[in-house]
Give the backbone structure.
Amino acid sequence: MITFSQALEQLHALTDPKIAAQMQNSYKIDRLYLGVSNLDIDTLYKQWRIEVDGDARISLASELWDSNIHEARIAAAKLLTQARISSDDNVWQEITRWIPTLDHAVIADQVCGAGARRLKSTPERLDQVATWVQDENIWVRRSTLTLTMPWTKMNNPKAEDFDQRDQVLSWAGELASDTEWLIQKAIATWLSSLSKHDAPRVLSFLEKYGTKMKPFAINESCKFL
């Protein structure tokens, strides 16, 4: 079974100092960067998933996250990204522990990709996410939309899916007056994805809230209409 120390050793063995320096300069977040490629991270985490399961996998992901190493945090999120997990309360709890500590879109999108699967498997968790819409932490607010992206991509939604989609649209409406670029971008991404499957709802949203949004966000929301 892979241990946390062994996982870190494997990541450090793939360090590329030149790429690490470029990442540090680009991301401008104070943490350790190793310069490991996404392809190499994928190779490692897939092997780790074979070796650890259940609570042991969550524990490994938790330790990787808490190391605050960029590649380790990416790997942690990938470890918990799975379509079906028989008992996933602990996985959801771990992912929601990470969300308030997010600080860059690259890691945030990976974490929310993992969380979105847990949210879609248990939509009742939307009640918890609803409490984040007005959170003072911008990454928590952003996560209300990035976690709910599956509701923008349904080809044959059921009645309850439409209700949940409308619930998220109501959150987006609350956030429409938020001037932060990250929030405006998240709204636009959500709407542009939805427009491929439910253009009338997007048009209705823009008619109601468009005046509160930034011009770039409106343009992006409409790019597939």
